[in-house]
């Protein structure tokens, strides 16, 4: 249950998540989506790493490595190490493009079936044209490696390069439902407690150009799980029949509600969040993406409906987050 609380003594330090990991994942996807490989169609996506075998490019435990799960549209299980290296040779133009984009040295040093260190795995589906069955290779790098890669040069003349462009939108989470009287009584220093916290995701909406993504957002690692996608055309007013049916369904409850007791839905806007266009195009109900951006030093905007009524900052209150009000909007 959500509520509105006084600030002291319930304010604690806000738990921070690893924003660097989020930025690295988005950088890796953006760079791989814009590989300089003329004559090839390359689609990049973040994946769970396959079992291998893995071709190693260095002796360090976190050295880059590469697996080839599929060749020409068919699952690839090499009979021996020699067959794996022959397959790698066929993908030399892709390796050259990765080296040019990242500065990595992709000279094979060994083949391994050892468990992976923690890191980031990016799948590249490579084909000559739209009719050719793609081959898939998976590049695995250390979690902090993409931070050192140059920002991708977005050349819109390269087929598919536009997919690396980051798309930003407003991230809004449900906070609390309280009476109009309690909203009117909010003052600087109050905390509006939410239903989500460091280990508890919340209902959220990501407003992007021409669409809204509705789902569950986990503030700890900025993972957004999609429930529904709404195009702007679907955000228009409902037909009159729906309004009439809703009114008829509500007719039996004739108890008057005092204006001060009317429920007001409070929400929290946490600034901008972003994801590469390549991930946006693949969103489906049930899919999960990691949003770029950070809660660190982000101003939280408290909304009543879509109307801003206050600004403040996130604070941890036990297992939940709340908005500590620092400034009320004029007229609020």
Short descriptors:
eleven-stranded antiparallel beta sheet; about 325 residues; single chain; alpha+beta
Q: What's a quick, concise take on this entry?
A:
The protein is of the alpha+beta class and 332 residues long. The protein has helices spanning 19-33, 81-90, 92-102, 180-184, 240-250, 277-280, and strands at residues 4-5, 41-46, 54-56, 65-71, 74-75, 110-112, 119-127, 135-142, 166-179, 191-193, 202-208, 211-218, 223-231, 263-276, 288-290, 300-304, 307-317, 320-328.
Q: Note poorly predicted spans.
A: 6-17, 234-252
Overall helicity: 10-25%
Name the helix and strand elements from N-terminus to C-terminus, one letter apiece: EHEEEEHHEEEEHEEEEHEHEEEE
Number of strands: 18
Adjacency order of strands in the biggest sheet: 1-10-18-17-16-14-9-11-12-13-15
Strand content: 35-45%
Structural class: alpha+beta
Q: How many domains in all?
A: 2
Q: How is the main sheet built?
A: 11 strands, antiparallel
**Separation of the first and last Cα atoms:** 24 Å
**Number of DSSP helical runs:** 6
Q: In one word, what is the shape?
A: elongated
Mean pLDDT reading: 78
Radius of gyration: 25 Å
